[in-house]
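Example 4.3 (complexes with small molecules)
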Amino acid sequence: MAIQKLMSHFWDGLKTGKFIPKTDEEIRKIINENHFGGEAIIELSDEDRIVIENEIFNHLKYRISKNLDLRKLCEQEVVYAPNDIRCGGFPCFITPDSTFDKAKEYFKKEKLKGNLLTKNEKIELFSNPDIWLNGRLYSGNSNSPMGSWGMRHLEAYGFQVNEFGGVIKRVKGNTGKNLLNVLDIGGAMGVALKDIKDFFPKDVITNNMTVDVEPVTYEFDNLYLCPGERFPKSLEENMDIILSNMAFTYMSGQNLALENCLRSLSVGGEALLSVGIGKQDSFVQDFSNRMRNQYDRMIDLENKGFIELKVKSGTWVGHALTYKPESESNNWFPPAWVEIRKLKSLK
Ligand SMILES: C[S@@+](CC[C@H](N)C(=O)[O-])C[C@H]1O[C@@H](n2cnc3c(N)ncnc32)[C@H](O)[C@@H]1O
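Answer. The structure with S-adenosylmethionine bound is encoded below.
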């Protein structure tokens, strides 16, 4: 539902041949209903809500409405090259304004043969998630991926399949559950979740949390179109494995997302998170102080026996467990690989 609402203008544009972007009001409405709708585990302060909402709005406006590529796919003549004309292996789409010689040639030849994509052919091809994952668009002076975000497989999250199988086995033992809720914060179109479901179909329910989506996604069991800074109440102590790769880095409220992970983990559950350099600027200097407080809270929870905490950090900006914002000349809070194992309920 949420996916359809977010990208409906693109599908309408393919049908009619005219791309009509969503208005600011429509985008705000979607954000209000989805990203900030319903009850949260922890409600945002007014100040945080404004910052996070504006970030999502600006991002969505650019991604779904001002996206020139989407407009071109709807409105321009498009030729399909099932194998990349340059290096092979990727499905490719070419618009008439491509300045790339081989693409221009290919376009001309296919057009002469009458092989322009029809509206229905466009709809059929663009309904295939593999196209958004692997496809490339030759348009203007660029040759770029169809999808907008890095969309990585489980292995690129840092897990070999057998290693992830080990996590599932351990969490099953520690939670006493046979069917585990796996949440991917920033799961985009669900590539890693699909891998997990393919490898462990009987062991997992897949949950994707993301602020935006491609026009199509792979299948997952549940979608939460919301920011990591504000988790829906229904997730409280209900997620058994929480993953995140290349998503914290887009958050201005990383501390809030870490707190939500603590709250949403089931007892026995594990969060395995890549917490990259964040959007420090949104809360100016306060970002680092908030992160310091959040790490101190996690250290305290570990000392009191609520969680087990492992933090791998230590780069050019220091270590997340010991970094003291007030005495550092560099105000980038250190990125880290964070593992949280919940031992006791926080309810
Ligand atoms: C670069 S993609 C990463 C996709 C995938 N995890 C991977 O590693 O390929 C970034 C993802 O983070 C999501 N994202 C951005 N800001 C977010 C936020 N505040 N809360 C949750 N997810 C966010 C985006 O919607 C997108 O799904």
